[in-house]
Amino acid sequence: MDEQTLSEAIRLDSPPVLRPASIVGYSIKMWGPFPVLIEGPPGNVVNGMVYEVQKKAHENSLAYWEKNGYRCTSCSIKSGAGGEQISGKTFMWSGDPNDWGLSAGIFDLEAWKRKRSASK
Question: In this structure, what are the phi and psi dihedrals at residue 119, rounded to the nearest 5 degrees?
């Protein structure tokens, strides 16, 4: 969801084009300051952003960036206000969703950006 983090992860020269999107049948837990996607409950909607990876090298870089704690999986994405369904991939928590290191919570993108800016 964060353009700057995505740009760093796949080494883009210009800002990525992100579009609002959602996936169904997943939920979010927090792993420290990081949101993690877990399966279920059925029908639950998680809102976020979708990015169309342009190069295999970018896909590989993103997989390397997300290697710790996540696994790549296929999903159906509802893209934009029109609700177009597209096939895509997402990174899900690779461990036990009941792991003690995960907690309930929501990810606040603007708070994340402020904290990141303050630490630079």
Answer: -85, -5
d(CA 110, CA 2): 9
Alpha carbons 52 and 31: distance in angstroms, whole number: 25
Indicate the pTM of the whole model.
Answer: 0.82
Joined together, the tokens standing for residue 71 give 């696994």
Give the domain extent around 109. 3-118
Number of domains in the chain: 1
- CB count in 10 Å sphere of residue 95: 15
Q: What is the pLDDT of residue 106?
A: 84
- What are the residues whose beta carbons fall under 8 Å from the beta carbon of 77, sequence distance 6 or more? 21, 22, 23, 50, 85, 86, 87, 88, 90
The CATH number of whichever domain residue 12 belongs to comes to 3.10.490.10
